[in-house]
Specification:
The structure holds 2 protein chains of 2 kinds.
Chain A: H1 4-13, H2 27-39, H3 43-69
Chain B: H1 3-11, H2 15-37, H3 40-57, H4 67-91, H5 94-98, H6 102-105, H7 123-134, H8 138-149, H9 154-161, H10 165-189
Helix pairs in contact in B: 2-3, 2-4, 2-8, 3-4, 4-9, 7-10, 8-9, 8-10, 9-10
The chains are: A mainly alpha, B mainly alpha.
């Protein structure tokens, strides 16, 4: 007669024969999506992003130019882009 | 959507294809990771990592293997890395074990992992078998899990492990022999040997 321990071991070895695949929990996709959103930029959005950045840069350049042209009309004290304060308060007297 | 169309869509960065990809393969990845790490929380974390890694590397996928095989490879590699990291962490707690009394150390070290896909009447035996699987060397553990837990054919296991069919056959034969030895010892002494290598 076969050793009962061997029989038991063989029986245990077959315990996974009827195993069914475990299901991944539903919330995992939400977690993965959040992780991807942190890292991933869709290539088709890269052009939009580049265009937006170029537009912002162009607007900045225009704004700076405009400010520099208006420089002569700046109020007393900050004329010609000088950081030095010019005391021009004689008109008060 | 077939695999080829899915790969193309994934490579072009189509976000809706990502969801299809996930829905098609999530259970396979999760079940494989669960079989290897034997812990549901850890298997969830690994599944998450596997998909993020896959999404990030799909551009480099050369289609030399099937999409599922590629994904199984990532899963196996991340699961084994996880097990190694966990073992390293455990080794840090070795001093605690030294100070455990003799009685505690002689208790059988069978973890309480119950795979959700095991039939109720098989749960106790499956729990003991999963404990035995943990003692196998990595390659035998992977082959056994892919074949018995995930239900892959010998050829699919061979493709995933990048081995020949005969090498996988012999690996699985050795795994079963080692498991049988471990289980016989377990039932004889009710105290399993620590490792089979």
């Amino acid at each position: 007669m076969e050793d009962p321990h061997i029989q038991k071991a063989e029986h245990t070895l077959q315990s996974l024969d009827t195993l069914k695949r475990a299901h991944a929990p539903d919330f995992l996709w939400t977690r993965i999506e959040a992780r991807l959103a942190e890292r991933y930029v869709n290539p088709k959005y890269i052009w939009r992003l580049a265009f937006s950045m170029a537009l912002i840069l162009a607007l900045n350049v225009l704004a700076v130019n405009h400010t520099l042209k208006k420089g002569d009309k700046q109020p007393t004290g900050i004329r010609n882009g000088s950081s030095e304060y010019i005391d021009d308060s004689s008109y008060l007297y | 959507m077939n695999d080829q169309a899915l790969i193309e869509a994934l490579k072009s960065g189509d976000r809706s294809a990502f969801k299809v990809f996930y829905e098609t393969y999530a259970d396979r990845v999760y079940n494989t990771a669960l079989g290897l790490v034997q812990n549901e929380d850890d298997a969830r974390d690994i599944t998450q990592e596997v998909f993020v890694t896959a999404f990030e590397n799909i551009r480099h996928f050369r289609q030399e293997a099937q999409l599922s095989t590629w994904l199984y490879r990532i899963t196996v590699s991340q699961s084994l890395d996880f097990i190694k990291a966990k073992k390293r962490k455990k080794r840090g707690g070795g001093m605690i074990r030294i100070f455990k009394n003799k009685e505690d150390r002689s208790m059988p070290d069978v973890p309480h992992f119950a795979h959700p896909g095991v039939l109720l009447e098989q749960q106790e035996n499956a729990r003991i078998l999963f404990a035995a699987v943990q003692s196998l060397p990595d390659n035998q553990k992977v082959a056994f899990t892919l074949h018995k837990v995930e239900g892959l054919s010998y050829q699919e296991v061979a493709d995933t492990m990048n081995m020949s069919l005969s090498a996988v056959e012999s690996l699985l034969h050795r795994a079963k022999q080692n498991l049988k030895k471990w289980l016989e010892n377990y039932y004889k002494n009710e105290s399993p040997p620590q490792d089979i290598t």
